Amino acid sequence: MASTNTARQSTRSVRLADYVAIARLDHITKQVFIIPGIVLAYLISEVRSPDVVMTVLLGFVCAISIASANYTINEYLDRDFDALHPTKSARTAVQVGLDPRMVALQWLVLVLVGLAAAGFAGRVMFIIACVFAAQGIVYNVRPSRSKDVPYFDVISEAINNPLRMMIGWAMIDPYTIAPSSMLLVYWTGGGFLMTAKRLSEYRDITASHGRDLLARYRASFAGYTAEKLIVACLIYALLSGFFLAVFLIKYRIEYVLALPVFAALFGHYMSLSLQANSVAQKPEHLFRERRLIAVVAILTMVLAFCTFVEMPWLDILLRKSVIVIA
Q1: Which one of 75, 111, 195, 223 has the minimum C-beta count within 10 Å?
Q2: Which pTM value belongs to this model?
């Protein structure tokens, strides 16, 4: 585990808390993407785990452990590049000389805990957990290190979203995975979120430190411009909306009434990414954004309403017909 540069490190001794810090347990809020998987499995699947409480517990242990394992190698391997970043330079791995053997041991223990929890929950969750752990290696570790390749960095990072949804689904139905249309919604929606994050970083760092530093901090930025990132956001949002419409119409036509709220959610998040020092750069803090939470609350209420209220007049959208004028 070595990088090409030298991180700025303090002279203080390394503490156990430093190793815990690079596992980023404060990012646990990202596991919220598991919850829609749980809800969808209850609404759509006719199969139930014989012990739902236990599989839910094991599923969260799996997701948190493997995510923390991925964060562990992410922060350690990025320490020399993060030293160039205006805010990430304060990260523990940049400031303190961590022992690479201890970092590797922590990664291994966290992965094994996650895989063990998944294994007890069922074969499907175990396979998902293996892919989740492998994604962390592909994204962070050479020779693949997909985070340095423009566009592929977003695609390979955004896959975390459908993996989390599948974990949530497997908590309820341990024998199948969620519908492909919804997994694609999650993947492309994650692509939108990750691209918006990069757009916010691009705008802030180029304005304060210049584009050269940005490219040295993350190689993938050498292939981006603000215009390219905005276009990518638009493409991901359109794709996510398309796959969402497929899912909504296929499984319950009433859900199409929620599409405008979904659009508002994407629009608000895009506006956040265009703000200086945007919270979009730190998704783990999104719960502090009151307007965003308000839109999510409205979306939840609309979906709940559409779940329990039948609207047969919407069936016209499923029929092949034309509007007769005369």
Answers
A1: 223
A2: 0.90
